[in-house]
Amino acid sequence: MIDPALPLIDLHRHLDGSVRLETILDLGRRHGIELPAWDVEGLRPHVQVAEPEPGVMAFIARFRWMTAVLVDLEACRRVAYESVADARQEGIDYVELRFSPWFMAETHGLDPAGVVEAVLDGVSAGARDFGLPTGAIGILSRTYGPEIARRELEALLRHRGRIVGLDLAGDEAGQPADLFVDHFRRARDSGWRVTVHAGEAAGPESVWKALRELGAARIGHAVRASEDPALLDYMLERGIGIEANLTSNVQTRTVPGYGSHPLRRWLERGLLATINTDDPGISGIDLPHEYRVAAPAAGLAPEQVRQAQRNALEVAFLSREERDALARAKAVALGSGGAREAR
Fold this sequence. Notes:
Metal_Hydrolase; globular; single chain; zinc; metal ion binding; Ado/ade_deaminase; alpha/beta; 8 strands; metal-binding
């Protein structure tokens, strides 16, 4: 159950994995993109996961129709704006949206720097129009290798003051973190916080590299970190955040099922683990679903769910003043009777 006295926060949400089916259809019609179906229910099985995929890269292939309709910068701006709108509709109080400019630009040969500007404009407009504090996280997609990642980084650095952090995502098993050490040194020097996808398609050594070589303050997924007790001790001692994605991890076969997910054990150990959506448009879920359905299925008791909520506020890429303001706003809303009922 979601505690209405605490902010509801999503820290690991790909905006290019959150495109509405209706938007895919609309953009497809406008721009003459050949889609596999021309109605929502016909398109759904081509985009959303119904059964677990063979692995992470097969899951990523589901992005195909989302990126297929990113034909121009206005389309990029639109999907960013709608991602904020949808997060607000879910009852989220703060969201961090992450995106890879090269991944979004590649299909139609867009300028990655233009994609960054369009996405940030859409995020800013959505945050303003829907009253939802939103942080933007840039992604370097390691799938393309270090040189393309360098070009992504340059595009992101043009707008460094509008971005709160940098992520490394994509082919974790094929492109290890040590190829990107210089990229992340530059990111840290620019004042960004660092989060890294690790421990999903590779083992605990991938998490160690993310922490020691890239300077990660948070780890996305981190499932296989549990194979190394010393690593968990290290993460606990240093207050490393974990961005858990329950349904996504089941759908990519990172875990056999909800009951096998290590989130409950992480919380029992005191790790700063959180609950997030990953790619809600592909997984066919929202954040309330992850709290109401996935978390209990993973064995979390109500107090552990609340603990995950508290952890999200603690490890968000916000200043202490911003965290305090978010908590105060929630308390005021609850006191005035404006809080939503616990879901």
